[in-house]
Design the sequence.
């Protein structure tokens, strides 16, 4: 029987390189679009309407906006609405971009919210940012 040999490198660092520059294949893009559409369609109507307003409120206050910023806006309301699945946030941000409130960037940041477990979120440019109070 042959003995296994193990290579042990206690001080070596391993660096993985991931290429995020390429688009997903069309079938994967279609599945993502279907999931976003389903999440948006199944979101609570009141939540969706008020969340859209909170996107605009965050965009007026900040030059760059993330979904965490919009959640802060909605949570600051006296009786914030809820929806059963926060996956509806993505479609709301895309809707805001379609309406000209936000512009896409290629930048991302990890969520600071404990319940989102460091999920990646897009950084959006506000097209409504104002330095006036």
Sequence:
């Amino acid at each position: 029987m042959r003995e296994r040999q193990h290579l042990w490198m206690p001080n070596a660092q391993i660096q993985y390189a991931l290429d995020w520059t390429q688009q997903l294949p069309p079938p994967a893009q279609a599945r993502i679009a279907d999931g976003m559409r389903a999440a948006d369609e199944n979101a609570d109507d009141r939540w969706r309407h008020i969340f859209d307003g909170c996107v605009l409120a965050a965009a007026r206050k900040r030059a760059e906006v993330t979904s965490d910023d919009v959640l802060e806006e909605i949570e600051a309301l006296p009786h914030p609405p809820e929806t059963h699945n926060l996956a509806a946030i993505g479609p709301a941000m895309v809707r805001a971009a379609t309406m000209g409130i936000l512009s896409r960037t290629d930048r991302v940041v990890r969520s600071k919210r404990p319940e989102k477990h460091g999920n990646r979120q897009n950084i959006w440019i506000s097209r409504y940012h104002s330095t006036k109070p």
Notes: The domain at 27-126 is CATH 1.10.10 (Arc Repressor Mutant, subunit A).
